[in-house]
Design goal:
By secondary structure, this protein is mainly α. It contains nine helices and no strands.
């Protein structure tokens, strides 16, 4: 499969998995905008490692859909699944614990996972600058910015 075909296959997989999801902003933008935007941040920074770009497109599928890491491994390979696994939170944990673990895990993550995590946080920060999610205050936005700095 060509790199272009692989990239489209990955984007399509993410789009199908996120098809019914919306962002929490006032406009309720389609969720797929987020992983595409994360991948875009990476390519704009000169990252051309296909596995990293694929992982960016897939980074929330395990956490937010019925996708498993095994499914990603079968479709996209061990390297992509490994990166996605590194950036996936364990949803069964309390939110504060997940946030604490992100800070700890960031120090030990692979270079590829750090790139995806950085691009993810950058996308979220830009999105929060553009529009607060419903129910968020300016203080909560500032808290997110400070926490993000600890993760990256």
């Amino acid at each position: 499969m060509s790199d272009l075909a692989l990239l489209i296959e990955t984007a399509n997989f993410a789009a199908v998995k996120h098809k019914d999801q919306r962002r929490k902003d006032v406009e309720q933008t389609p969720y797929i905008n987020h992983p595409v935007g994360v991948a875009h941040n990476l390519t704009q920074a000169g990252i051309d490692d296909m596995s990293v770009i694929q992982a960016a497109l897939l980074h929330d599928t395990v956490e937010d859909t019925d996708t498993t890491l095994e499914e990603i491994k079968q479709k996209f390979g061990e390297k992509v699944a490994s990166i996605v696994g590194e950036v996936t939170d364990k949803k069964e944990l309390e939110k504060q614990e997940r946030k604490r673990l992100q800070i700890i895990h960031a120090r030990h993550a692979s270079k590829e996972a750090k790139l995806v995590k950085l691009a993810d946080k950058l996308y979220n920060i830009r999105d929060l600058e553009r529009s607060l999610p419903s129910g968020w205050t300016d203080a909560r936005r500032l808290e997110y910015f400070k926490w993000s700095a600890k993760v990256v």
